[in-house]
Specification:
alpha/beta, 2 domains, two-stranded antiparallel ribbon, 60% helix
Length: 550
């Protein structure tokens, strides 16, 4: 049917428009963040900066590299495995339901090999979801993709071994060995367009934007369908002739009218998604995974609807229901455990100006730490694509981004009272970015340091000219116990200068510092020379959460 092709084309166009509009929106958002960060309330410096009592620590400081240390158990590993298992089972529930429906509605027998091929094709989005869950660890991603296509090649081998007959398709002979690949190309490959809105550049806002764009495009499609009804078509043709619009002008006028009419429902769908996220009825993972499987169900409905009409369209959403119920059941034990788990808070500090590697570190760290606790950080444009929540993005679209920025002590107290340290419905915790005006970040970071279970400072690119980092180093020594503090370094870190600054500041600790009388004061440095993924794994294993340190 032409309608099926038009709808699938709309989805492909929606993916492209989401990538383009999302990228532009993020660039504008980053510029708006810079403007708001430069705004100050003009208040005097905090009284604490007037000069607290200071004295040298009782014992000398030791700086150690943790590269060769024997790490403890990574507390996130088992949780990540169980979360991935829940998503795999849910994806299989979708795939099995879709495969059975497809074969039954097509009048085909449920033969083992045939069913396995169809199930594996419909299970393809599981690969996308798992790659999202595990973060940008290239080895893990390669293993997930390799395992999927390895299974597909096994089915190809079984098809050849069983003597599957060749298939003629468009004048091309497809041997039995290649038919599982062909089926994958027909039913799974089109969903590759999902990668457009899963792009890490816009992933934080991708689901919100693609929902808005899809509703807009469907509005134009509905307008075209309405105009094609005979009475309205006659009126439209007479109008086009009378005004000189012509056929092309009538078509595009109808499209634009449909888009304009669909703006309000598209906006309401986007705000509904934002409101559910704000109310903790969903999470970034559930929103993204849900968008993937809903779009897969839509594409399935087009295939079913072509031959079976409305019944086929409705039947296509049975697998979606199976996915959601299975996922809820699989995640429920993890959610209960998360609700009873101690509140582990990670504060991530960094050298500003190294956006690409800061984003990668946050992606990797978030994939692990957010399984056991929340991540707090000072928001900045370099991490906007990772930390912008739906409510913040909608506030930016409304022109109210400044309302999210802390400009005085009262606003800081209000923001801290609303920091989210409870698990989401998928048992993961959230990131809490604090948007601060120029003169408030110091107050915010001190409060975050005191509340954190672990403070990680990414010192890649550090040099003595980084005055803000030096302030944070002094403050860390003043308020954070050394067993809750880890520094990340690499070849771009001026390690000698860093050591000199730490030793100097160690002689000028606040008199009430938790480090003033430590028996064996040590600062841990983790070298990221072997890659971010290994550094994050080492960090998780040395965090001491399983030993009650944090």
């Amino acid at each position: 049917m032409a309608l099926d092709g038009a709808i699938i084309l709309n989805l492909l166009v929606a993916g492209v428009l989401t990538l383009i509009s999302g990228t532009v929106a993020l660039l504008l958002l980053q510029r708006a963040m810079v403007r708001n960060m430069m705004a100050t309330a003009g208040r005097p410096p905090p009284a604490d900066e007037a000069g607290p009592q200071r004295r040298p620590a009782s014992r000398p400081l030791t700086i150690v590299f943790d590269d060769t240390a024997q790490p403890g158990r990574d507390p996130s590993r088992a949780i990540l495995f169980r979360a991935c298992a829940a998503h795999v089972l849910a994806g299989l529930a979708f795939a099995v339901s879709a495969a059975v429906l497809l074969l039954l509605l097509s009048g085909m027998e449920l033969l083992p090999l045939r069913t396995a091929v169809v199930v594996l094709a419909f299970a393809w989005p599981v690969v996308l979801v798992l790659n999202f869950l595990t973060g940008p660890d290239r080895w893990r991603q390669a293993a997930i993709i390799g395992a999927y296509f390895g299974l597909l090649l096994v089915l190809c081998g079984l098809a050849a071994a069983r003597g599957t007959e060749s298939l003629e398709l468009g004048g091309i002979t497809i041997p039995g060995f290649g038919q599982p690949l062909l089926f994958w190309a027909i039913y799974a490959a089109p969903s590759v367009f999902l990668l457009l809105f899963l792009n890490r550049t816009i992933r934080a806002i991708g689901p919100t934007v693609i929902v808005f764009v899809i509703v807009l495009l469907f509005g134009s499609q509905i307008a075209l369908l309405i105009v094609r009804t005979q009475p309205l078509l006659d009126m439209a043709v007479h109008f086009a002739v009378a005004t000189g619009l012509g056929g092309n002008g009538l078509f595009w006028s109808t499209v634009v009218l449909g888009l304009l009419v669909a703006i309000w429902p598209a906006w309401r769908c986007a705000t509904f998604l934002s409101d559910r996220y704000a109310a903790k009825r969903t999470s970034d993972v559930l929103v993204t995974a849900g968008a993937i499987w809903i779009l897969q169900a839509l594409m399935l409905s087009f295939n079913f609807g072509r031959e079976h009409g409305a019944v086929g369209v409705l039947a296509a959403f049975v697998p979606l229901l199976a996915w959601r119920l299975t996922l809820a059941a699989g995640l429920r034990p993890l959610v209960r455990e998360a609700e009873n788990r101690p509140d582990f808070r990670l504060l991530l500090l960094r050298v500003f100006g190294f956006g690409r590697r800061s984003r990668r570190l946050l992606d990797l760290l978030g994939a692990r730490w957010r399984l056991i606790g929340s991540i707090d950080l000072i928001a900045a444009p370099d991490l906007a694509s990772r930390t912008i929540e739906p409510a913040t993005f909608m506030g930016f679209v409304r022109g109210r981004l400044s309302a999210f920025f802390i400009q005085d002590v009262a606003q800081l107290q209000t923001r801290f009272a609303t920091l989210d340290h409870r698990p989401d419905p998928d048992a993961r915790y959230r990131m809490n970015p604090l948007f601060c005006g120029n003169d408030m970040w110091k107050d915010a970071v001190i409060r975050l340091m005191r509340d954190a279970s672990l403070v990680v400072m990414d010192l890649r690119g550090f040099s003595p000219e980084r005055r803000g980092c030096i302030y944070e180093l002094q403050t860390l020594l003043d308020v954070v116990s050394l067993d809750r503090l880890v520094f990340l370094v690499d070849v771009t870190t001026h390690v000698d200068a860093l050591a000199g600054i730490l030793m100097e500041r160690w002689q000028e600790l606040r008199a009430d510092s938790p480090n003033i009388d430590l028996d064996n004061p040590r600062i841990r440095l983790i070298n990221q020379a072997e890659g971010d993924a290994k550094a994050v794994l080492h960090l998780m294993a040395t965090a001491g959460l399983d030993r009650g340190k944090a």
